[in-house]
Automatic annotation (TrEMBL):
PROSITE patterns given in the database record: MDH
GO MF entries: L-malate dehydrogenase (NAD+) activity
Name listed for the protein in its UniProt record: Malate dehydrogenase
EC number: 1.1.1.37
Keyword annotations of the record: NAD, Oxidoreductase, Transit peptide, Tricarboxylic acid cycle
GO BP, sorted A to Z: malate metabolic process; tricarboxylic acid cycle
């Protein structure tokens, strides 16, 4: 018998039992009263025993027992923003959730996925940082995951695998993004959305169409995450220049796939120049950074850790923008009038409503102008593909 059970039985036995009086002239009634009292005592004892058993077991299990956990949640150290990650149990989602739990601007972190979100939530919720973490599983909990959120980050979907066609990837992820954005339109239409799911060049137009259909579209609030291209560009350029990557700022414009990724090496800060060979090498490496990781992982997925880092860098910039910090600038794939295309990635100024200002391209050299034409051609097709999918 367990310690809990023993302890409960002892306590139950020490209860005062109801006293029974016997009068010879009322033998039948007395026996009836006795039976009723006996039954009442038994029920009382059983109830106290059960309650005591639960309390005692809870004590034995410590503060994290199921009982206490339900009533007692960390309050979060400081006021901050409410952030949801959709696809939080994935290769990007998990490190992204961990890094957002560390972010002091986050007070509430909602982790949603169609699988494994309870495990990821339990794990991350043990980190002693300010944000309160809650998990949500499957479509029926999507509304609860989204309600009240300031920022929604979407890495849900399938990653590129060797042998997978672009169409395979598109068809799966387009449907996922559409469903999730329908949820956002209903439950948190004012949230700023960071869309990571590929192909970003098509998923951002899909999200825009969903929001337009729902009557909630605010172009400033929808941002395709291209930060990984910038992170890679900063790293590779720093390697060539022999600098610390943190000192390097490379604008990367266009879109987020192959030739649509256009690093503007003529605008690198600190100002520097590159030989034609260096320009060719850097442009190719930045455009094919994703493939470099897919091939190195040999079937085990695409960039997840550097992507989570880039996503957090971008989300943090968005949160600082919402907070009202001045001069928060980052590259993103947004609704744009910079070119004739309806969406394009450039530097944007982030503010309380998202992309408050979309910057122009600035002066391009001949190499970049040729790259821009190639990028625009492919981008136009990807954007149209997204729009057609959403309007079907
Ligand atoms: N924007 C970028 O720079 C960039 C970089 C790398 C990868 N990606 C893209 O990010 C996405 C995720 O990549 P990953 O490596 O984390 O993939 P993954 O397969 O490891 O994780 C994806 C997660 O999404 C979840 N998911 C699937 N359907 C869902 C739905 N309907 N609702 C909620 N969650 C759902 C899965 O259960 C899984 O946990 C892919 O589309 C990938 O191509 C984008």
């Amino acid at each position: 018998m367990s310690i809990c059970t023993l302890r409960s039985l002892n306590l139950a036995q020490s209860l005062p039992l109801c006293t029974i009086s016997s009068h010879s002239g009322h033998r039948g009634i007395t026996e009836l009263v006795f039976i009723v009292q006996f039954l009442a005592n038994s029920v009382l004892m059983a109830a106290v025993t059960a309650e005591n058993l639960i309390i005692e077991c809870a004590k034995q299990m410590g503060e994290s027992s199921i009982l206490r956990q339900a009533n007692c949640r960390a309050k979060g150290a400081a006021p901050g923003f409410k952030v949801a990650i959709l696809g939080a149990a994935g290769g990007i989602g998990q490190p992204l959730a961990m890094l957002m739990k560390i972010n002091p601007l986050v007070s509430v972190l909602h982790l949603y996925d169609v699988v494994n979100s309870p495990g990821v939530t339990a794990d991350i919720s043990h980190m002693d940082t300010g944000a309160v973490v809650r998990g949500f599983l499957k479509q029926e909990q999507l509304a609860s995951a989204l309600t009240g959120m300031d920022l929604v980050i979407i890495p849900a979907g399938v990653p590129r695998k060797p042998g997978m066609t672009r169409d395979d990837l598109f068809n799966i992820n387009a449907g996922i993004v559409r469903t999730l954005c329908e949820g956002i339109a209903k439950c948190c239409p004012k949230a700023i959305v960071n869309l990571i799911s590929n192909p970003v060049n098509s998923t951002v137009p899909i999200a825009a169409e969903v929001f337009k259909k729902a009557g909630t579209y605010d172009p400033k609030r929808l941002l395709g995450v291209t930060m990984l291209d910038v992170v890679r560009a900063n790293t590779f350029v720093a390697e060539v220049l022999g600098l610390d990557p943190r000192e390097v700022d490379v604008p990367v414009v266009g879109g987020h796939a192959g030739v649509t990724i256009l690093p503007l090496l003529s605008q690198v800060k600190p100002p520097c120049s590159f030989t034609p060979e260096e320009t060719e090498y850097l442009t190719n490496r930045i455009q094919n950074g994703g493939t470099e990781v897919v091939e190195a992982k040999a079937g085990a997925g695409s960039a997840t850790l550097s992507m989570a880092y880039a996503a957090v860098k971008f989300a943090d910039a968005c949160l600082r923008g919402i907070r009202g910090d001045k001069d928060v600038v980052a590259c993103a794939f947004v609704d744009s009038q910079v070119t004739e295309l309806p969406f394009f990635a450039t530097k944007v100024r982030l503010g309380p409503n998202g992309a408050e200002e979309v910057y122009q391209l600035g002066p391009l050299n001949a190499y970049e102008r040729a790259g821009l034409e190639k990028a625009k051609k492919e981008l136009a097709e990807s954007i149209q593909k997204g729009i057609s999918f959403a309007r079907k």
